[in-house]
Structure to design on (761 residues):
């Protein structure tokens, strides 16, 4: 597709969708949202890019190979389960820690967030991979 | 201890993720593939030793106690299955290094293999029925991709059939879970076992048990739900066929055995005659289908079906001895079946075809006596010739059947056994024996160095295991019968998962 | 309400089976998608249909406001949707590849594996 309207709109929409996907990812623990939905939103942004421009440019704009994104996501998600093992608790026991971030205040951080982050990357990787495979066919 | 129970899932996941990350280097993927599966064998053996010594191990994921959270429950049967899965996985990984072409390997073959193993191990370890569904989907997803990897026309056709029928089965499974949750309000298998035993509503229990039987029956390829298997298993590369043949239908059998011992114990009035009939028909149709085929892997595919009948037979009889026979049969079958598919691959490499008639003119034996002998061992074991593993597996089942006087089914089992021998001698005669012992004409398709040592090693190891299982049938049968006793001891399972208070709660009101 | 949902679930199941039994592989995908929806709707209704609050605990309290809906069926459905999403996406790629290889979307042409 080669529509100047879609291309221009995509340039503005894509950063917005990506930021929104991160917001959805972060609010996931206590409100509707989470890694899967956030990941799908981000994947939607990249799919839009692939439709407006072309799949090759989308691959280039991702900077990382999709396979690496999936792998990193899997490893992050897995690593969320491991700290519990080190402290002698069963796998995936949620561990929480309050971190003081200068300028923002106290942030309540835990391993479930790490798991969501992993899911986020896996979902982006797999969805975009499938969309691009179909578009390139 | 709790770490050991989750390692069979974590290890393949980590290995899979690591080898996706290193997608650029095939060599690293191969090394990781072999190393991780060998490590899995060690872990699974340690887990088995632990369960054997300490009894059922329960791990509550995320420290949420049952029945609220998801638990991994490892009993003897589950841990035996994990050991078998790990052995098959390691053999496949080693065989694949040379047995899978570079193009497929570069399309993430090894990561998919790891994820498949993760799904299989997860299914064997989990104590939550919805979690079982999730593990099924994990292993199915990777099996879909493995089956279609390569994009050849036959593969795509086989894959469409395979995917469709498996999605139907998953939808049925999901439906059954929905009704189960709606009725009993829990998904933890131990808790379900307790609640189902206490319920008065036998109508819904029977309906549910049949839904599960169909859903798992499709995956296990029992009569009359097996048609997808011979239509798809001969299409992918041999290593993929082998791990599918060894493990995937057996996950279905495992699920049937788990569900029909823990949740819906065999009812001599209804489920037993039904299952005996299904077992007999599965054995018969499988072996007759095999008799009509002349393609190496299609013959073997039909034999998977007939063997599933034997495992179902043991469950249907539901005596401790019969169930021990089933467990023993699974142990024997996974090793032998995977090995036969590996050998079919070797024969194809040597002769360039896997059509038995086309192999015939120059026998494999003339080319490589070693491969022929390596075929002979699992083939005779499958047919039930002493002193190999298959003989003892069948012997136990036959004795169990005679003990409770189910003569008809035993007659069927023995006839099927003879027909299996016929099939195996057919392959032997056509592919390995027929034709001049010394080749006079140089067939162009023949490839002298077709069989690298890295492909012979797993075949020889599995053959050695078959012989060993036959030679040490006593101690191994002892393990199988303890696993069967544990399967029949529902209270023990429930107590291990929910704790002693749950049982007292049950008794006091 | 329960009966209405039951009829809808049955209807979707019937449509799904009908579509799967058609000869076109494109309709096969639609049938499989419907099959997943039917199963999900069934789980949803199996959890009990009621007008209730979402099971979210407000700040300051320790339990969600009564009456609250059982969140587990929703979690199950979400998981099942995620899985069927992945499987269907894969099926789509598979069908397009198979269509290119066979040159026809009629399942009767898929005869190579029946030899």
């Amino acid at each position: 597709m080669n529509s100047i309207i879609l291309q221009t709109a995509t340039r503005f929409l894509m950063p917005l969708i990506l930021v929104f996907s991160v917001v959805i990812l972060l609010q996931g623990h206590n409100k509707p949202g989470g890694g899967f939905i956030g990941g799908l939103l981000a994947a939607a942004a990249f799919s839009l890019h692939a439709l407006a421009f072309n799949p090759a440019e989308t691959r280039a704009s991702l900077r990382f190979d999709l396979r690496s994104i999936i792998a990193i996501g899997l490893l992050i998600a897995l690593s969320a389960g491991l700290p519990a093992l080190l402290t002698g608790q069963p796998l995936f026991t949620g561990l929480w820690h309050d971190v003081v971030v200068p300028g923002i205040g106290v942030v309540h951080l835990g391993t479930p967030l790490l798991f969501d982050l992993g899911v986020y990357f896996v979902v982006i990787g797999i969805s975009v991979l499938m969309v691009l495979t179909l578009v390139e066919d | 201890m709790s770490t050991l129970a989750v390692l069979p899932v974590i290890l393949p996941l980590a290995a899979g993720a690591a080898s996706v990350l290193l997608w650029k280097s095939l060599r690293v993927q191969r090394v990781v593939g072999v190393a991780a599966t060998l490590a899995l064998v060690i872990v699974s053996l340690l887990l088995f030793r632990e369960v054997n010594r300490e009894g059922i191990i329960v791990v509550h994921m995320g420290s949420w106690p049952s029945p609220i959270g998801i638990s991994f429950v490892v009993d003897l049967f589950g841990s035996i299955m994990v050991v078998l899965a790990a052995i098959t996985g390691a053999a496949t990984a080693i065989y694949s290094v040379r047995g899978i072409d570079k193009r497929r390997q570069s399309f993430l073959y090894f990561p998919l293999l790891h994820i498949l193993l993760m799904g299989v191990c997860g299914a064997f370890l989990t104590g939550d029925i919805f979690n079982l569904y999730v593990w099924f989907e994990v292993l199915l997803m990777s099996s879909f991709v493995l089956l279609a990897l390569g994009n050849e026309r036959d593969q795509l056709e086989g894959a469409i059939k395979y995917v469709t029928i498996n999605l139907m089965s998953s939808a049925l499974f999901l439906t059954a879970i929905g009704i189960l949750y709606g009725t009993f309000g829990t998904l933890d298998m131990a808790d379900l076992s307790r609640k189902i035993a206490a319920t008065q509503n036998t109508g819904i229990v029977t309906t549910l048990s049949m839904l599960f039987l169909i859903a798992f029956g499709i995956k296990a390829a029992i009569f009359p739900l097996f048609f997808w298997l011979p239509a798809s298993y001969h299409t992918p590369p041999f290593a993929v066929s082998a791990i599918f043949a060894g493990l995937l239908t057996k996950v279905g059998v495992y699920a049937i055995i788990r569900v029909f011992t823990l949740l819906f114990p065999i009812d001599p009035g209804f489920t037993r005659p039904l299952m005996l009939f299904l077992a007999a028909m599965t054995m018969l149709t499988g072996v007759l289908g095999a008799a009509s085929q002349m393609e190496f892997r299609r013959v073997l595919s039909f034999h998977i079906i007939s063997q599933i009948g034997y495992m179902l037979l043991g469950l249907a009889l539901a005596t401790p001895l019969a169930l021990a026979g089933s467990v023993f049969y699974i142990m024997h079958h996974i090793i032998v079946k995977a090995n036969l598919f590996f050998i079919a691959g070797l024969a194809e490499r040597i002769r360039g075809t896997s059509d038995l008639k086309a192999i015939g003119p120059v026998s494999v034996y003339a080319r490589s006596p070693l491969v022929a002998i390596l075929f002979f061992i699992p083939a005779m074991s499958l047919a039930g010739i002493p002193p190999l593993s298959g003989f003892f597996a069948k012997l136990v089942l036959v004795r169990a059947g005679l003990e409770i006087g189910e003569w008809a089914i035993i007659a069927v089992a023995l006839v099927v056994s003879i027909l299996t021998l016929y099939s195996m001698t057919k392959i032997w005669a056509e592919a390995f024996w027929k034709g001049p012992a010394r080749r006079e004409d140089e067939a162009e398709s023949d490839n002298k160095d077709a069989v690298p040592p890295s492909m012979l090693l797993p075949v020889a190891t599995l053959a050695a295991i078959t012989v060993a299982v036959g030679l040490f049938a006593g101690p191994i049968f002892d393990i199988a019968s303890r696993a069967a006793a544990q399967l029949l001891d529902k209270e023990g399972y429930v107590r291990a998962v929910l704790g002693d208070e749950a049982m007292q709660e049950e008794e006091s009101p | 309400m329960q009966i209405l949902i039951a009829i809808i679930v049955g209807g979707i199941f019937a449509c799904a089976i009908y579509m799967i039994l058609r000869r076109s592989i494109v309709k096969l995908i639609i049938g499989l998608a419907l099959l997943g929806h039917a199963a999900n709707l069934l789980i949803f209704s199996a959890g009990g249909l009621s007008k209730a609050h979402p099971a979210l605990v407000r700040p300051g309290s320790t339990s969600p406001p009564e009456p609250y809906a059982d969140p587990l069926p929703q979690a199950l459905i979400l998981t099942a949707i995620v899985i069927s999403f992945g499987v269907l996406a894969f099926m789509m790629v598979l069908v397009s590849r198979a269509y290119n290889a066979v040159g026809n979307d009629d399942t009767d042409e898929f005869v190579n594996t029946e030899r």
In short: Chain A touches chain B at residues 65, 67-68, 70-72, 74-75, 78, 81, 84-85, 89-94 (CB under 8 Å). Chain A has one domain: 4-136.
